[in-house]
């Protein structure tokens, strides 16, 4: 007698899992990318400064390379780890120039007032800043220098959210009048006069 056999139905294939949806492209950052160092021209209508060359260099305010640039009768703008940003960039755009020597391009900077406009032209764009305050920097104070060079002027360690500018020149007449004849190795007096501004508009040159 032939034993009965049991018929086994083939198992149904496992369903294929649906393919995952394609990954969305990374969101673009809304913050403009800094361009790095660029040559520029500075105009301050309230004191008659027009198209003053601003030369970028790697360093910090009023160091030896920056002083040599200023000695040519132009302005200097430090960038890099110890410097500032470029024109129009988020952070502190640092610009320094002589007040008494090399033609004194910033001789009238102390008379610039809150609300005055400053124009910086670079790579076909005019950046307009409005002066918001005046500060004094001491070369003999590490804290004071850190405040001048901070990404947010006056607030070391703060993360910048706006494009700002610091225009700086010597306070030699004021120091001398106060009987302060201190000088550093580059003959800078103790104090600098700094005008701080914020970017208010941009337009094509």
TrEMBL record:
InterPro entries membership: Sortase (IPR005754), Sortase_dom-sf (IPR023365), Sortase_E (IPR042003)
GO molecular function: hydrolase activity
Compositional bias per record (Basic and acidic residues), positions renumbered to this chain: 61-71
Pro residues bias locations: 12-25
Coiled-coil region list: none
Domain of life of the organism encoding this protein: Bacteria
Biased composition (Low complexity): 1-11
Region (Disordered): 1-40, 56-83
Keyword tags: Hydrolase
Protein name, per record: Sortase
SUPFAM superfamilies: Sortase
Catalytic residue positions: 98 (proton donor/acceptor), 170 (acyl-thioester intermediate)
